[in-house]
Amino acid sequence: MACMLSFSGKDYMGMQNQRSQGLKTIEGELLEAFTKGGFIDPEWLDNPQKAFFQRASRTDKGVSALKMIISLKLPPDDPTLVPEMNAILPPDIRLQSVVRVTKNFNCKSAADARTYLYLTPTFAFSPVTDTISESWRSTPETIDNVNKVLKTFNGSHYFHNYTSGKLPLEPSSRRHIYEFTCGQPFENDGLEYCILKIKGQSFMLHQIRKMIGMTMAVVRGHTSLSKIEETFGMDRIDIPRAPGLGLVLDEVHFDRYNKRYGSDGIHEPLSWAKVEDQVTDFRDNVVFADIMSTEKASHSMLDWMIHLGMHRFVPRHFEEDGETSPLIQAALHVARDTKLKDSLEDT
Q: Any catalytic annotation for residue 60?
């Protein structure tokens, strides 16, 4: 069976089960709920592989998901499963639906693509010549410029500079981006926001956040648009990584599976159409609401932008060791001393 989930990752150490380390994760909460509800064998709680458990995509610490799929062995056609599970699960994890799938269905390998959203204050795109301020507002030209930059990522490229441990032209670093767009701005509690949407075949560690960080650097004027093309080449280029707050897994796509099995009369398509209203409500009132309230309180984007200008974007050969500039060294010392001062004041 395939379970269709929505969850807020704020209070969790990621998606993957880490019960043996005593860490709170989405999968850990799900497996405990399945056990309490009597839907899986208690022995499977610490051995989910016996239930043929699989996740469509792994999310990191703090990352939320609106349309996540997991698959495992469950009682078929049980109308009580969804309501009973939601009564057991915490309110930041919702089981939206359960769908019968093929016997050997693997939600990870069957996935065609993944779509992510990134909710950000628009002042992240303010010109470098402007004073960084939460009162800054975008113009239609701002959004057009952002979309122009995002478009350069579309297609297949080597994204070795957007993750770690990858060399130039390494096959595993080649990824395909179907679309990357910026939506229209809107206001909430005195801040203006916009949503970036990216759909790709698959993504590597930190890839999306670095793509967004690079976009912000180009739009603001810290580096040129042509620099993005250079990042796909043979040199190592220092790329800023945008804050994790704001990143949300929107949907895992199963177009090939649905085309082949979705209308065979035995299995149901992996479609969110019937629960779209519930997912939208969870997105707006739980996930996005939490992101915006956290941004308002913590100023994570504002703090990140203060250090954005320290990135040099100077190409160097991959065999060369990185050399930290005096400006960055000074910033690191300040950050370290500030943390030390805060810790002393708390004691």
A: yes
